[in-house]
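The passage that follows is intended for readers who have already worked through the single-chain material. We present the inputs for a multi-component assembly, then the predicted structure in tokenized form, and finally a short commentary. You are encouraged to pause after the input and sketch how you expect the pieces to fit together before reading on.
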Amino acid sequence: MAAACEFEAEVLAAAMESRWPEGAEPQLREHVSTCGVCSEAALVACTIGGDRDTLRPAGAIPDSGRVWYLAQLRARREAIAAADRPITIVQTMALACATGLLGACFGATSGWFQATVERLTALVASHALLAAGTVVLVLLLPVAIYVAIQQEGTGTISGGRRPAG
Amino acid sequence: MFRDAAFTDVRRTDVRRMELDELAPAFVMDEEAFRAFYERTARGVWAYVARVTGDRQIADDLLQETYYRFLRANAVHDSEKHRRNSLYKIATNLAKDARRRSRTHPFDPAGDEIEAAAGRDHGPVMERNTDFTRAMAHLKPRERAMLWLAYAEGASHREIADVLGLNPASMKLLLFRARRKLAAFLRGKR
Ligand SMILES: [Zn+2]
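Having made your guess, compare it with the prediction:
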């Protein structure tokens, strides 16, 4: 079958304007009955046109006002998200800058820091007993105070209570 | 001090809101023009997506998205045809993505068959639609799209090529082949 026929456009126009076959010229109808290209064109165009006119959505087509409103709402939300994004980037960059600055300061004064650490280490090594005692005292003192408070509290509550009657 | 902090927060929120009013994209199209355009095109777009994907539920789901993307593109169109082509291009891409997501159901005519089986008052119409749906199910999505654009929307070869991202020079032959294939299924020869 040839890929084209000179009457095809005419047949398609009649089919798409819902004039086929009743509203078409008798000569054209006769031609289509013998032409494979045109009969296919008429069949497909009429079937698709008929389907388009009868096909119905499962639900109703949403109202244009509602579609517009939802689009506005979503555009606004996306604008909020877009507006928040640069702030997050700026905050992240600020944190990175602050960390870098602190690092630089530390680097500049690290000689002093290391000297202090060394001096403290030497001091601890030369007075080992005193250091150990201080550590024990620092660790045990809060525990001792806590236990004392607990005991005192318990004593007050139990002492405060009197048997009824 | 805490009161000051709270006050600063409130002020920041107000400033943010004011900024957002400026940031919220004003669509190029105004509401009145959009609503008129939607009224003219929504049913056609819905039917196109329903027939290309073979799933009316997908068509329901994609309608709002299609128009949102159309609005958000903020494109200026020189004619109604150009505007329609943009809309169908968006619908085509969304349908393609939806189909990719549900590869297990590339074309499901069940919805139409159920409705046809239910009969209703317009039984013969539904029966014809069911035959058509079955025939369309044998075609590739691209073939369904080009046939629908040509014979339901009356689009030219150039417009179809533009919407589907195809070479305009090959449109005539591709359309002829798709039409022949559909005709054969409609006549029950395949
Ligand atoms: Zn012919």
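Commentary: Chain A touches chain B at residues 1, 3-4, 12, 15-16, 40-41, 43-45, 47-52, 54-55, 57-59, 61-62, 64-65, 67-68, 70-72, 74-76, 79-80, 82-83 (CB under 8 Å). Residues 155-165 of chain A have pLDDT under 50 and may be disordered. How closely did your sketch match?
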